Amino acid sequence: MRYAILLLGAPYSSQAAHSALRFAQAVIARGHRLEAVFFYADGVHNAASLATPPQDEPQIVDGWVDLQRDHDVRLEVCIAAALRRGIIDAAEAARHGKDGHSLAPPFTLTGLGQLIDLGVDCDRLITFGA
Amino acid sequence: MRYAILLLGAPYSSQAAHSALRFAQAVIARGHRLEAVFFYADGVHNAASLATPPQDEPQIVDGWVDLQRDHDVRLEVCIAAALRRGIIDAAEAARHGKDGHSLAPPFTLTGLGQLIDLGVDCDRLITFGA
Amino acid sequence: MTVTTSVDEGAAGELLVILRHGPHSGIALKEGLDAALVAAAFGRRVSLLFMGSGVAALMPGQGKGPLDQKGTLPTLDMLEMYDIDRCYADSASLEALDMSADALVIDVTAVDSGGVAQLMACHSLVMTF
Amino acid sequence: MTVTTSVDEGAAGELLVILRHGPHSGIALKEGLDAALVAAAFGRRVSLLFMGSGVAALMPGQGKGPLDQKGTLPTLDMLEMYDIDRCYADSASLEALDMSADALVIDVTAVDSGGVAQLMACHSLVMTF
Amino acid sequence: MILHTLNRSPLDSSVYLQALAAMTEADCLLLIEDGVLGCLPAQAGRWPQLTGRLFALREDLASRGLVDACSDSITVIDIQEFVALTEQATKVVSWY
Amino acid sequence: MILHTLNRSPLDSSVYLQALAAMTEADCLLLIEDGVLGCLPAQAGRWPQLTGRLFALREDLASRGLVDACSDSITVIDIQEFVALTEQATKVVSWY
Q1: Greatest CA separation found in chain B?
Q2: Distance CA A40, CA F4 (A)
Q3: How far is A121 from chain B (nearest CA, A)?
Q4: Contacting residues of E for D117, CB less than 8 Å apart
Q5: Interface pTM, i.e. ipTM
Q6: Does A3 contact chain C (CB < 8 Å)?
Q7: Residue D7: what pLDDT?
Q8: Total domains, chain F
Q9: In whole angstroms, what is the distance from residue F13 CA to residue A42 CA?
Q10: Nearest chain D CA: its distance from E22 CA (Å)
Q11: How confident is the prediction along chain D (129 residues), in pLDDT tens digits per residue?
């Protein structure tokens, strides 16, 4: 089956990101295709390139990056939710006159329409809320 | 009286930041001294220099900066809570090998001990949770 | 106020967006409404279900916040323009806030628990915010 | 399990930290405990009150999370080293999770509603996490 | 007198029960943010024996359209009066 | 069958009531994260008539020390079985 995940929680602040990552790994382990993880609401903080969690905590960002690299899972971040929360890529930083950027590659900023397409196109959309 | 505020909520994601800012303004309007606002947990996102909220939403960061400029209110951000959430100043970015920083001046990173000192030294510590 | 258990055939749609957060309480409600509006703009048939504190979004007389927060009323006013006309509210939640489905800021159908379950069944995708 | 309404004089301290979040559920509990540890390190007399889901922090048999999250047990083990030995738990919350104050990971005194109120009264500063 | 604040809607959260458990007969409770949804008459049963000690923040009621609907048993105060309550209280405890 | 997931502790949150209101007799409920605190026998009364349709995620029970304390009436499943449930369900609805 084709799956997509909607993640609404920041790493560490809630357990939602941990649960979503575990679920993503299990979806793939069962032979499904995971098309994308869509980061919305506080979930956009998962893409924070400047986050510096203690070494003895799980490095959630690495988990997402591994999924992208090993299983071609798209990491899509809602641009509107991200900008108001300080997650911004170089192009948007230039547009808004911001001195720096904070979106880790290979996360990409995209519109909410992508979430709707995932919901309609995939067999299952699983939400992890916070 | 001498007041301090502890803010645990990010701007926009919860109402806590709005409430704390309103309360801070009212404390000063009533002639009290507001020593500091301490930003802890998700409250550290109030200090995000890269946040780009829509123009038609209240610019909460400006409210904090005004308090600092006009009434000498210290804006203290818990360093441990901030680093794991991607709020980092230039010095910490250099130390952790991060390519950029995201703490808006005049917010300053500090330790939790500052919060304890505020709680003990001030007549009132008011928490706004999220 | 009439409460419906059996939602008619016209209720069937592609996407049901459940709104459970109140207005002026952070942007969870706004971000849920935005998802609904974008889905409608993409040509999807969208229904809304207000539940729990979310029914407070329907309260008449809402205003701006003290810091000039505009709240969600302006967004609700856009639903019609986006052809989102299937709006439901959980009757138990309405009662808990002394609200009547007859006197709200937009037209909604009050549904009881059976109606809520039926809305889940007749939409192919359900998103909770 | 003995439940106390009347907290003795020794309960009086400067800071009462109320912990209401469960372990492994985000870092709210950890951040609350950190505040307590730092206060103790600064020489303050600190008491802890576990309430609501926070009492789950006291459950025996906790382990790491599936992504190797270490949870809060290692932090609780440090309380003694920081001389935080006044720990209380709301008895109603313990009962709601089938827990007995006699079989928890640290020594706590179970307090009923009257005891909770008395703890508020006898500490000059109360912080809720 | 200890001032307790509560910012959660009683429709989703049972944290208000923790606040009530922690209060003595001398203490006051102030409803703010989504807590003001507790001001509606249908919610009055959640606040037994708090008459005269139960407050709600006017600006949070107003933005939600609830000023007129607020129960008579609740004292509506503005943000300055909120500060005044914190002056009178020996300490402030937040429930969220 | 619709699979409902719930991640909130019944000690703080009444969102579980919304989940129950939305379920039919064919639907299943999976407790995850702090939702697994609902597995303790003292909480069993919150889940009437869900026998055979109430699940809890083993790893969230295990990290909280609750595997042995879990009510007999609840089916403990691992993360792979969670995925299997989402395969069988026509859709998944999250309550948080």
Answers
A1: 45
A2: 20
A3: 29
A4: 21-24, 27
A5: 0.97
A6: no
A7: 82
A8: 1
A9: 20
A10: 4
A11: 788 887 876 667 799 999 999 999 999 999 999 999 999 999 999 999 999 999 999 999 999 999 999 999 999 999 999 999 999 999 999 999 999 999 999 999 999 999 999 999 999 999 999
Q: What is the pTM of this model?
A: 0.97
What one-letter code names the amino acid at E47? Answer: W
In tens, the pLDDT along F10-60 reads 999 999 999 999 999 999 999 999 999 999 999 999 999 999 999 999 999
The DSSP call for residue F26 is T
Per annotation, catalytic residue among A10, A78, A81, A118 = A78
pLDDT of C11 over the 80 cut? no
CB contact under 8 A, E60 and C24: yes
Using one digit for the tens of pLDDT, what is the confidence trace for A49-73?
999 999 988 899 999 999 999 999 9
Q: Is the preceding omega at residue B106 within 30 degrees of 0, hence cis? A: yes
Q: What is the DSSP letter of F96?
A: -
**Cβ distance of D117 and E21 shorter than 8 Å:** yes
Contact F95, C116 (CB under 8 A): no
List, in sequence order, every residue forming a beta bridge with A121; answer none if it has no partner: none
Query: Digits of tens for pLDDT over chain B (130 positions)?
Result: 999 999 999 999 999 999 999 999 999 999 999 999 999 999 999 999 999 999 988 899 999 999 999 999 999 999 999 999 999 999 999 999 999 999 999 999 999 999 999 999 999 999 999 9
Thinking of the domain C12-60+69-128, which architecture would CATH place it in? Answer: 3-Layer(aba) Sandwich (3.40)
C25 touches chain F (CB under 8 A): no
Q: Do chains D and B touch (3 or more CB pairs under 8 A)?
A: yes
* A neighbours by CB contacts (3+ pairs under 8 Å): B, C, D, F
Least CB–CB distance from D67: residue in A9, A14, A58: A58
Q: Which of B24, B67, B78, B88 is catalytic?
A: B78
Would you say domain A2-128 falls under CATH 3.40.1260.10? yes
Side chain identity, residue C40: A
Instruction: CATH number of the domain at E31, please.
Output: 3.40.1260.10
> Residue ranges of chain E with pLDDT lower than 70?
none
Report A:6-65 residues touching F (Cβ under 8 A). Answer: 8, 15-16, 19, 22-23, 25-27, 29-30, 32
Kindly determine whether residue A86 and residue B48, on different chains, have CB atoms separated by under 8 Å. Answer: yes
Residues A100 and A48: their CA atoms lie apart, in Å, by 12
Find all residues with CB under 8 Å of A128, minimum gap 6, and list them: A5, A6, A7, A8, A9, A16, A17, A19, A20, A23, F7, F94, F96
8 Å CB contact between E56 and E76: yes
**Contact call for E14 and F15, based on CB within 8 A:** no
Residues of F within 8 A of E13 (CB-CB) are: 12-14
Q: What is the reported pLDDT for C9?
A: 64
Q: Is B78 among the catalytic positions? A: yes
Pairing state between β C46-50 and C86-90: parallel
Contact D64 F60 (CB under 8 A): no
Q: Say what the pLDDT of residue D9 is.
A: 63
Contact yes or no, C with B (3+ CB pairs under 8 Å): yes
Give me the domain span that covers residue E31: 2-95
Where are the domains positioned within chain A? 2-128
